[in-house]
Amino acid sequence: MKAWLCGLDDEEISSVSSILTFIGIEHGTSLTAFPMPDFVVLGRSVRSFELDEMIPVISLCESMDVVGDYNVWFCPLPWRSQMLSSVLKEIKQLHSFPQASGVNLNLHVRHLEALLIRQALVSTQGVVSKAAQNLQIQRTTLIEKMRRYNIDKSEF
């Protein structure tokens, strides 16, 4: 299995990464590490998200508003092995069902763009100009995209 780690702070990355490595799950914080993950782990700072429902989500929050028909498990740290193994078993079962034949490219691009913006803001502690520089876009473009995806810099 493969996992993307999105919006995690350094402490969360350290904790989650060591557990996933121990149980043999390939993972990375770079969204280009592999084409499509089996699931996404969202940090506590992520309060809203837009994902294709075929990608399951493990959120480190205790709860959040979920709009749509997403497969979301709320698993705050520290993770217990029994709870995590049951969640991973459910995620594996989801992949055994037939997938839809079409792919909504626009949805995937918006999802990827929003995740990259959040990741850049987390890595710069919410400093928009540094995040824009890391993303190699203009600051004003980043601000427009943050507005479009309802991303508030105060979350970071």
Structural overview:
The protein is of the alpha/beta class. The protein has five helices and five strands, in the order E-H-E-E-E-E-H-H-H-H. The chain has helices spanning 10-22, 81-96, 105-123, 128-135, 139-148; strands at 2-6, 26-28, 39-42, 57-59, 72-74. It has a five-stranded parallel sheet, sandwiched between helices. Helix 1 links the parallel strand 1 (2-6) and strand 2. Helix 3 crosses helix 4 and helix 4 crosses helix 5. The two termini are 29 Å apart.
Task: Give the low-pLDDT segments.
Answer: none
By DSSP (H or I, 4+ residues per run), the number of helices equals: 5
- Look at the structure and give the mean pLDDT: 83
Sheet of most strands? 5 strands, parallel
What's the overall geometry?
Answer: globular
Class computed from helices, strands and strand pairing:
alpha/beta
- Cα(first) to Cα(last) distance is 29 Å
Proportion in β-strands? 5-15%
What is the ordering of alpha helices and beta strands?
EHEEEEHHHH
With strands numbered from the N-terminus, the spatial order across the biggest sheet is 2-1-3-4-5
Helix percent reads 40-55%
Number of beta strands: 5
Radius of gyration: 15 Å
